[in-house]
Amino acid sequence: MASQQTNSGNPRVDIEYRRKKSAEEMRHQIISFALMIFLTLVAFVAVGYEGFSSWFIVPFILLLGCVQVVFQLYYFMHMSHKGHEAPALFLYSGLLVGLITILAFVTIVWI
Amino acid sequence: MAAEEKMTLETWPASPEKQTLEGKNKFLGFWLFLGGETVLFASLFATYLALKDKVPSAEHALAKDLFELPLVFVATMLLLTSSLTSVYAMYHMKNFNFKKMQLWLGITVLLGLAFLLLEIYEFNHYVHEFGHTFTSSAFGSAFYTLVGFHGGHVAFGLLWITTLMIRNSKRGLNLYNAPKFYVASLYWHFIDVVWVFIFTVVYLMGMVG
Q1: What's the rounded Cα separation, in Å, for the pair B40 and A73?
Q2: Is the CB of residue B1 less than 8 Å away from at least one CB of chain A?
Q3: Out of B14, B18, B69, whose CB is closest to A18?
Q4: What are the start-end ranges of the E strands in chain B?
Q5: Does the CB of B71 have a partner CB in chain A at under 8 Å?
Q6: Is the CB of residue B203 less than 8 Å from the CB of residue B65?
Q7: Nearest chain A residue to B92, by CA
Q8: B54–A43 CB contact, under 8 Å
Q9: CB–CB contact B77 A37 (8 Å)
Q10: Which of A5, A32, B34, B132 is a plausible cystine mate for A75, CB 3.0–4.6 Å?
Q11: Nearest to A98 among B42, B95, B200 (CB)
Q12: Between A and B, how many residue pairs show a Cβ–Cβ distance under 8 A?
C-alpha cells in the first residue's frame, strides 16, 4: 500500500500527518457511535411507548436498524475506505441471497 | 518487508493489516467468510420469522409474554459499547501502541463476557419461568437456534481475541500479527451487526406483537 504512505522525506512529519488522519477518523467513529446509541434509544422508546400502531413501529425500527448497520459497516468496519470493492461484493451477494431466503420464508411458509 | 521484522513507529505502515501478501489474503478471505455468515444468519432469521409464535397450545408463552425491554436494552448497550472499544483497539494498533491496543481489547472482552452472562441468565429465566425450551415448540427451536447461534459467535469471538492477546503478549506488534488483530476486530463488529437485527426483529418486533 505504498500509495497510502505519505512521503515528505521526513519520517516525523509523516507520523504527525498520519496521527492527524487517524485522529480524524476516530472522530468520525465517535460520531457514528453516538448516532448508533441514539438510534437504539429511539427504537426502544418507540416500542416502550404504547401510543403507536404496529403498522408504524415495525417498518420504523427496521429502518433504524438498517441505518445503524450501515454505520457499523462503513465506519467501524472501514467499508468507506478505498480497497473495499471485493468485501462489498461479498457482503452484498450474501445479503441478496439472504433477503430472498427471508422473503420466501415469510411469504410461503404457513403452519 | 518481512512479516516478523522488528518495527518502529517510523517504519510502521499506514495499513499494517494489508502490508504483507498473507495479510491481504486474510483480509479478502475473511470478508468472503462474512458474506457466508450473512447468508447463514439470514436463513436463521427467515426460519425464526416463519415459526415465530407457532406453539402447540395456548398455555405456551409467546414472544410478547417472554421478552422484557430493560434486559435487552442493557445487552444491546454492552455489545454496542464493545464494538466501540474494539475500534479504539484498532486505532492504537494503527498508531503502533501495543499496550493500549491490548488494554482496549481487554475491555472489549470484558464487555462481551458481560453480554454472554446476561444471555445465559436470560435463557435460564425463559426455561424455568415460562417452560420455553428448545423442544417445547417450533417457536422455541427457532428462537434458541437464532439467538443461540449469535451467542455462540460471541463466545467464539471472546476465545479468539483472548487467545490472540495471550499469544502475542510478549511479541509486540509486527506485520505478522497486525492482520490477525484486524480480522478479529472485523469479526467482533460483525457480531454487533447481527445483534442489531436480533434486537430489532426478535425482541422489539416480538414485543410489538
Answers
A1: 18
A2: no
A3: B14
A4: none
A5: no
A6: no
A7: A22
A8: no
A9: yes
A10: A32
A11: B42
A12: 144
pLDDT digits (tens, 9 = 90+) for B73-94: 999 999 999 999 999 999 999 9
Of chain A, the end-to-end C-alpha distance in Å amounts to 55
3-state helix, strand, coil in chain A (%, to 5): 80, 0, 20
pLDDT of residue A6 exceeding 60, the answer is no
The CA-CA-CA angle for residues A24, A29, A34, to 5°, reads 125
Q: What is the DSSP track for B17-46?
A: GGSSHHHHHHHHHHHHHHHHHHHHHHHHHH
| Confidence band, pLDDT 50/70/90 cuts, at residue A106 | very high
**Chain A contact set for B207 (CB, 8 A):** 47
Asked whether B22 and B2 are in contact (CB, 8 A), the reply is: no
Residues 6+ apart with CB under 8 A from B107: B82, B85
Q: How far does B171 lie from chain A, in Å, by closest CA?
A: 23
All cell numbers assigned to B131: 417452560
> Rounded CA gap, A60 and B182, in Å?
33
For A50-64, give one letter per residue: b (16+ CB within 10 A) or e. eeeeeeebbeebbeb
Residue B140's nearest CA partner among B2, B47, B31 is B47
Q: Which residues of B, range 170-189, sit inside 8 Å of A by Cβ?
A: 186, 189
Question: Tell me, what's the ipTM?
Answer: 0.90
**Number of Cβ within a 10 Å radius of residue A32:** 20
